[in-house]
Design brief:
By secondary structure, this protein is of the alpha/beta class. It is built from five helices and nine strands, in the order βααβββββαβαβαβ. The protein has one domain (9-194): 3-Layer(aba) Sandwich (Rossmann fold). Helices cover 27% and strands 25% of the residues. The radius of gyration is 15 Å and the shape is globular. The mean pLDDT is 97. The protein binds pyrazine-2-carboxylic acid and zinc ion. Pyrazine-2-carboxylic acid binds at residues 15, 20, 58, 74, 108, 143-144, 147-148.
């Protein structure tokens, strides 16, 4: 039961970057390579069926409150213009790339991240891109299920898109045991369909 793509749908591929998807990456997510392979197939399918394909990239400066060495919780990862931040080589060229987590921004959603200076969410161009294309439904896949995929899917429903999670194209970090399952429950509660 694969997703049904058409011109009114978008495939949002969250952060399938070397640091998350390659075993040598700084924040490798267990199963990340399989996710990259599956996402690569889905991107081809989506394109063939006329859907919009958007890839997000976690895109941090070297010094950011998002990293543990500057008060955050994560090891250094997805530093701008490094190998770790590149999209995984299993992915075909995306039609659109959305970068997030720039500057002093901390947060996880491809729709926007929080600026620590202003305390406000800095939106990425994603919402406008989707509404500008007449997109009604989105399929979300990528890494990591319990972090950026969850945040992005929740924002997608809040923004009014009919939102689906592609279960076989994601994997959880599980920083705390059970985080992946809790993320699934939270998404289900918010009306996100699992396909
Ligand atoms: C992510 C941790 C830190 C993600 C990004 O893409 O899920 N996780 N930054
Ligand atoms: Zn990050």
């Amino acid at each position: 039961m694969g997703p049904n793509f058409d011109r009114r749908t978008a495939l949002i591929v969250v952060d399938v970057q070397n640091d998350f998807a390659d075993p040598k990456g700084a924040l490798f997510v267990q199963g990340g390579e399989l996710v990259a392979a599956r996402v690569g197939q889905l991107m081809q399918e989506a394109r063939r069926q006329g859907a919009l394909v958007v890839c997000s990239q976690d895109w941090h400066p070297l010094q950011t409150p998002h990293f543990a060495d500057h008060g955050g919780i994560w090891p250094r990862h997805c530093v701008q213009d490094t190998w770790g931040a590149e999209l995984h080589p299993r992915l075909p060229e995306p039609e659109q790339v959305i970068r997030k987590g720039l500057g002093d921004q901390d947060g996880y959603s491809a729709f926007g991240t929080l600026s620590l200076a202003t305390g406000e969410v800095v939106p990425t161009p994603l919402a406008e891109l989707l509404s500008g294309r007449g997109i009604e439904a989105v399929f979300v896949a990528g890494l990591a299920l319990d972090v950026c995929v969850k945040a992005t899917a929740l924002d997608a429903t809040t923004s009014g898109f009919s939102t689906h999670l592609i279960a076989d194209a994601t994997a959880a970090v599980n920083l705390q045991r059970g985080d992946g399952d809790r993320a699934l429950a939270e998404m289900a509660e918010r009306g996100i369909a699992v396909v």
